Amino acid sequence: MTENIKVSIVSLGCAKNRVDAEMMLYKLREAGFVLKDDPADGDAVIINTCGFIESAKQESIEEILELAKLKEEGKIKALIVSGCLAERYKEDIKKEMPEVDAVIGLGANGDIVEAVKKALAKEDFMSFPDKELMPLDDKRIGSTLPHYAYLKVADGCDNKCTYCAIPMIRGRFRSRTMESILAEAKELAERGVKELNVIAQDTTRYGEDIYGKLMLPELLKELCKIEGIEWIRVLYCYPDRITDELIDTIANEDKILKYIDLPLQHCNQRVLKAMNRRGSKESLKALINKIRERIPSVVLRTTLITGFPTETDEEFDELAEFAKEMKFERLGCFPYSTEEDTPAAELEQVDKDIRGYRADAIMRSQELVMEDYCQSRIGSTVKVLVEGFDRYAECFFGRSYADAPEVDPNVFFTSEDKVTIGEFVNVEISDYLECDLIGEVVK
Predict the structure, then answer these.
(1) Is 221 in contact with 173 (CB distance < 8 Å)?
(2) What is the pLDDT of residues 364-423, one digit of tens each?
(3) Which residues pair with 261 in a beta bridge?
(4) How many CB atoms lie within 10 A of CB 243?
């Protein structure tokens, strides 16, 4: 019996992991469990972990230990660990943290109901089937604000970047069928979703494995036909697969936001080759200039890695100068994380303090770029999707086309008329604070 048994999920890490958690939530609700937002209100709590880099692993471990305290205090009865950390370290989690009652790998996400039942019955449960058995097409319960959703079009990765553990954790690249994706997108639109954020480990590779060619442009065009969807945002685009067709599709389709998430990681040709990535500073600059020329007002988000094994001072300086020159509207820079069983872990490592110092230096430089960008927006009117009301600032806030959910800044604004969450409003920008724009609704 599952009636009146309360279950909560804490999902960590990326939006792709969140989608996995939403699928598990649906299975739990269908099985009769009562879903709770607050872990302290649950009889059983699932921690859907991240295991991508050291800081993410540490966050996952700390969350497990915090929830273990609730279990010790008798506030919850069972603790289940799922997600990338569980897939990567399997039985070690139970050995190191005996407070955990069940551990399941990605391929066992579909067995979450059984895992919860066993954990509540005080039966140790561990299941690690083939990771590629992880469901990609299941129904799910939205955990974001109701007006936006993530649409995962594929899972896994074949790029084999030498610093990255994702291929060994999540398996080979696997696309969903276009029919499946479009059916889900229509269902989301019927539910009131206005913004779709298209995601995968490598979104630009979509369709290559099942259709024999890159199909993202065609998929995006079909998504644009869905009534009710007003914004479509493309995240996690691999630079080598930014084709002219994709650029033209983003430029010409009104519903597709002029925003591209383009993780570059570095610009030095030798470092990129050591990362098992192609390109050079010259080729990347040419790509960026082409995108900006053909998509006016495009916002580019990128991520960079400092302190990759063997990176010299001169190569870092080249990266820092590249970031300063390219003036990315959105940028995150992270010190290299040494991941066991990856080829880069076998190379000569850069001192951790140097890695951090280099990342901080680029982010300090980026603050000036962001200030210039925010100043350039003053006097403009932007379309904003309302997300809430800030009681402390006594104003509303939301996101423009330039702001991906959960990672980018907000637009704060006042309004003489009533506005509601999920509504679009036009905001005239008059100021900014740090990276957030400030303005007022105009008719």
Answers:
(1) no
(2) 999 999 999 999 999 999 999 999 999 988 999 999 999 999 999 999 999 999 999 999
(3) 301
(4) 13
The position carrying tokens 């995601």 is 199
Give residue 356's pLDDT: 97
Quote the tokens at residue 28. 């739990």
Per-residue pLDDT of 314-358, as tens digits, reads 999 999 999 999 999 999 999 999 999 999 999 999 999 999 999
Residue pair 53/334 in contact by the 8 Å Cβ criterion: yes
User: What are the CA-CA distances from residue 176 to residues 158, 179, 261, 315, 437 (Å)?
Assistant: 15, 8, 21, 39, 37
| Cα 328 → chain centroid | 19
Q: What is the pLDDT of residue 1?
A: 57
pLDDT tens string 116-169 = 999 999 998 999 999 999 989 999 999 999 999 999 999 999 999 999 999 999
Closest CA to 148 of 389, 429, 398, 437: 398
Q: Are the beta carbons of 146 and 192 closer than 8 angstroms? A: yes
Residue at 345: amino acid letter: A
Comparing CA positions, the residue from 163, 201, 167 lying closest to residue 355 is 163
Q: What is the pTM of this model?
A: 0.94
- The Cα 422–Cα 193 span in angstroms is 9
Chain centroid to CA 57: how far?
A: 16
* CA dist., res. 414 & res. 55, Å (int): 37
In SS3 terms, the chain reads as: CCCCCEEEEEECCCHHHHHHHHHHHHHHHHCCCEECCCHHHCCEEEEEECCCCHHHHHHHHHHHHHHHHHHHCCCCCEEEEEEHHHHHHCHHHHHHCCCCCEEECHHHHHHHHHHHHHHHCCCCEEECCCHHHCCCCCCCCCCCCCCEEEEECEECCCCCCCCCCHHHHHCCCEECCHHHHHHHHHHHHHCCCCEEEEECCCHHHCCHHHHCCCCHHHHHHHHHCCCCCCEEEECCCCHHHCCHHHHHHHHHCCCEEEEEECCCECCCHHHHHHCCCCCCHHHHHHHHHHHHHHCCCCEEEEEEEECCCCCCHHHHHHHHHHHHHHCCCEEEEEECCCCCCCHHHHCCCCCHHHHHHHHHHHHHHHHHHHHHHHHHHCCCEEEEEEEEEECCCCEEEEECCCCCCCCCCCEEEECCCCCCCCCEEEEEEEEEECCEEEEEEEC
Cα 347 from Cα 326, distance rounded (Å): 29
